[in-house]
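protein under study:
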Amino acid sequence: MTQTPDNNKIRILIVDNHPLFRQGLKHAFQETPDMVVCGEAENGDHVVETVQTGEFDVVLLDIAMPGKNSLEVLREIRSQKPDLAVLILSMHPEEQYAVRFIRSGASGYLTKESAPGLLLDAVRKVARGGKFASRAVLEKLAFHPKELNPTPHLKLSQREFEVFCKISEGLTLGEIASQLSLSIKTISTHRSRILDKMGMNSNAELIHYALDRSLVKNFTPPNPAE
């Protein structure tokens, strides 16, 4: 859904596959005199089409959507409209994704657990051309813009990173395949590439790495019968 843009306000496109969450954001912005929601999208393909046809100042982009993965979407937005601000609004902790997305062209990163006032501040800042993230992330971007020896998990593609996190949470290949709507063979191939890129030999090493760096919050040991 796209509304007529209001050029006197910050024009926002909300991208999230959960209607109730989009509705909650719309309600928050309705109470803010300098912002207006001009469009909504529920998946990666939809947002690319919407950006092509609409006029927006800020895209609020969730990173866990069906269809095209969010890094692909971000790159397409940057290609089509390089001046359009993209603020990542995610359920995932900042340390998992923020640096990756900002280096790929996002204007900022915020978790969905953030206070509403912080979200409004972030939208205003990125709409003015600024960057929004925690001090730790911004310092890492400023002082290590081109790491010669990047943290191993930063070598992974977006899909590989998703699989890596799910392995690190204790999910079986079958469970991961079901959640991502992919075949077990595809997930197995991703796992092999993850181990190769990160220089590791087993799921146990991946799990230890992820827990040591707080990349996952919870680990559930898989059922031995599986």
